[in-house]
Amino acid sequence: MNKPARLWLAALLLTLLPTSAQAATFTVPREKISLVCTDSYFKAIRVDFVLPDEQYSQCKLLLPLALRERWPGRRTFFVIPRVSASLFVKEAGVKDGGKTQWLPLAPLVNPGADPLHLAVDSKGYGHLELVAKFVKLSDLAGEKVPDTLGAGGKLTVCAAPIYAGEAPCVTFDLTARFKVYKR
């Protein structure tokens, strides 16, 4: 079966499952999620933090999920992300309080040609990556001060083939926060 047909079949199976049979949800601990961003200008790598005056041409959210332990043996994992990044900003010059808000930054999607669907062979699996490009956080914040970058949402992973007694899909609940440092 070719790759587009497998992706289509996995998406179809996911939508046709009754609610009771749909993916169990697991929360991923924040400390297991990493963010690696590469600055557009100097190509400097930032791990688990960002700077407000840099534009990031490539950011990766690294997720070391235990997929091979959940589905042992040779499998294909189908990854369907619904994850986004947002920026927490505070009012400039105001101590303890002031107006704060979360601003949408970018969706975090699968790398490659199809950002919403990805098939991964279990043989080469080490971790999952979701990617995004971030504008300058100071430009997005405007007059406010960028404080925290958040990433969150749901990531559904299905496996094929499935054997008797195995759940075909699992949904992971992701929430992570990363500091925005000043120079």
Automatic annotation (TrEMBL):
Entry superkingdom: Bacteria
Keywords for this protein: Signal
Signal peptide span: 1-23
UniProt name for this protein: DUF2808 domain-containing protein
